[in-house]
Design a protein that fits this description.
about 100 residues, 5 helices, alpha+beta, two-stranded antiparallel ribbon, Arc Repressor Mutant, subunit A
Length: about 100
């Protein structure tokens, strides 16, 4: 099974990887929270619109899912799509998954 090209595009960008790192550390963040963490912890001065576009790419690849609650939209990480990469290139010495 081949990994989705959207997945490689999504993880190919450094800002998107940092967003995934932040969601791994604290899942279920709003866009405002993510922007604040990227600015404070990583010195990234990207606009909310730019971060929103990055989140859309991550969502299209299946790495991020959103949940609406009232006026807020919460972003949650989903690492299950990464399984296709691990299955494509198994760790040396381990049997591939059937």
């Amino acid at each position: 099974m081949d990994a989705d090209p959207d997945l490689f595009k999504a993880i190919g960008d450094a800002t998107r990887r940092v967003i995934l790192d932040e969601l791994t550390e604290k899942d279920g963040q709003t866009l405002f929270e993510i922007c604040g963490r990227l600015t404070m912890k990583h010195g990234l001065g990207s606009s909310r619109q730019a971060i929103s576009q990055h989140l859309a790419v991550l969502e299209q690849a299946g790495l991020v899912h959103t949940r609406r609650q009232g006026r807020y939209k919460f972003h949650h990480i989903d690492t299950s799509p990464l399984r296709s990469i691990v299955e494509r290139w198994p760790i040396h010495g381990e049997a591939p998954n059937p």
